[in-house]
Automatic annotation (TrEMBL):
Protein name: Chromosome partitioning protein
Gene3D superfamilies named in the record: P-loop containing nucleotide triphosphate hydrolases
Domain of life assignment: Bacteria
Function, in words: May play a role in septum formation.
Transmembrane segments: none
Family designation: Belongs to the ParA family.
UniProt xrefs under Pfam families: AAA_31 (PF13614)
Pro residues bias (residue ranges): 322-333
Region (Disordered): 317-351
SUPFAM superfamilies: P-loop containing nucleoside triphosphate hydrolases
AAA domain span: 54-235
């Protein structure tokens, strides 16, 4: 496993050597130098393109763990370093849209129109100011009703998958995104289910705090069920440790525990707790554009580079993605039902939430099918 940030340090050391004896050795000058590298490095060292389109579902049913922050900053980093990226905001709060400076007031064409209405994704894609390579599908508050409105929609679990497939195939090859990043809401309802069915891989941000692993067992369980019944291609491929506070022993313990559980899935680079990261959305920006020389910014660049390098060896498929849902399971197959289970650290609250989402114990609120319904495939 490579040393986190080694590449950046090496290149910074080279810069320091090149500028030693000049005025460039003060901390401020070094930060300015780092900023320049972040903003202009695409010319010097673009990230490698993935072997095929990567549709990445950023999920964790816990709120406040860094899903939105990671989606935004990884997305901007990939785009600044030369890759085409589409970010889809699937959280009715619209925080991703805010952080990318994309309008998301009621009435703005948004992901709601593609999921519940007849719009294609192309109709609701917006440019961003962060990079011409980065486009965003915003979420408006309308999306809050989608969990219920989708219940009666045909093939409700496949709406997002089909929207992405249609969008990608409508574009000429040289304009298709390399990455689609989907920011999920903090729940395991029908929106997150759509994102898991649409994705090829899941990225789970884990906050380096107490309770970090709580509920994770349930999320993994649900991903397994989606894989078994709705999307055989989905798997957790990346864990990103966020909000690491080097002053606390706890952060180290959590990071160690996560690495011992998930091994190579965990990116070597850890995102530190950094005030610039939390300030950036207030200015409608990512931390890379708000304060490119900050530690938050350079860490996200390094994490994005590691993430991109993992995509290089993915085998291309004949066409970007096969159209439509996979064939329905035989009528006798067991239903996608999860019994709420105790994860090692899971609380009763999150066990029952996940159980309700997938077992349909509260069908009006968390409408996931409990039977194979031909009409809905
Ligand atoms: N590395 C970080 N350093 C400081 N604050 C952070 C960092 N990452 C996220 N935050 C802040 O933590 C809060 C929750 O992050 P967010 O990405 O919105 O989580 P989620 O999408 O999982 O709910 C936000 O206020 C965000 O600005
Ligand atoms: Mg969020």
């Amino acid at each position: 496993m490579s040393d986190p940030g080694q590449r950046l340090r090496t290149s910074l050391a080279a810069d320091t050597a090149a500028t030693s004896g000049t005025d460039f050795d003060s901390p401020i000058a070094m930060e300015a130098l780092r900023a320049t590298r972040v903003l202009h490095a695409a010319d010097q060292e673009p990230f490698p393109a993935p072997g095929r389109l990567r549709v990445v579902t950023v999920a964790n049913q816990k709120g406040g763990v860094g899903k939105t922050t990671s989606t935004v900053n990884l997305g901007v980093a990939l785009a600044l370093y030369g890759l085409r990226v589409l970010v889809i905001d699937l959280d009715p709060q619209g925080n991703t849209s805010t952080a990318l400076g994309v309008e998301h007031t009621v009435g703005t064409p948004s992901i709601y129109d593609a999921l519940v209405g007849d719009s294609s994704l192309a109709d609701v894609v917006h440019p961003t100011t962060a990079s011409p390579n980065l486009r965003c599908v915003p979420a408006t508050i309308d999306l809050a009703g989608a969990e219920i409105e989708l219940v009666s929609v045909v093939a409700r679990e496949y709406r997002l998958r089909r929207a992405i497939e249609g969008y990608v195939q409508s574009l000429p090859e040289d304009r298709r995104p390399h990455y689609v990043l989907i920011d999920c809401p903090p729940s395991l309802g029908l929106l997150t289910l759509n994102a898991l069915v649409a994705g090829d891989e899941v990225l789970i941000p884990i906050q380096c705090e107490y309770y970090a692993l709580e509920g994770l067992g349930q999320l993994l369980n649900n991903i397994e069920l989606v894989r078994a019944h709705l999307n055989p291609g989905i798997a957790v491929r990346t864990i990103l440790l966020t909000m690491y506070d080097a002053r606390t022993k706890l952060a180290d313990q959590v990071a160690e525990e996560v690495r011992s559980h998930f091994g190579e899935l965990v990116l070597p680079t850890v995102i530190p707790r950094n005030v610039r990261v939390s300030e950036a959305p207030g200015y409608g920006q990512s931390v890379l554009t708000y304060d490119p020389g900050s530690r938050g910014s350079t860490s996200y660049v390094e994490a994005a580079r590691e993430f991109a390098e993992r995509g290089v060896h993915l085998a291309p498929v004949a066409d970007p993605r096969p159209m439509g849902p996979p064939p329905p399971p035989p009528a006798t197959a067991p239903m996608p039902v999860v019994r709420p289970q105790a994860s090692a650290t899971g609380s009763r609250a999150d066990r029952s939430l996940a159980g309700a989402a997938f077992a349909g114990t509260d069908a009006a609120v968390l409408p996931v099918p409990t039977s194979v319904d031909e009409e809905n495939r």
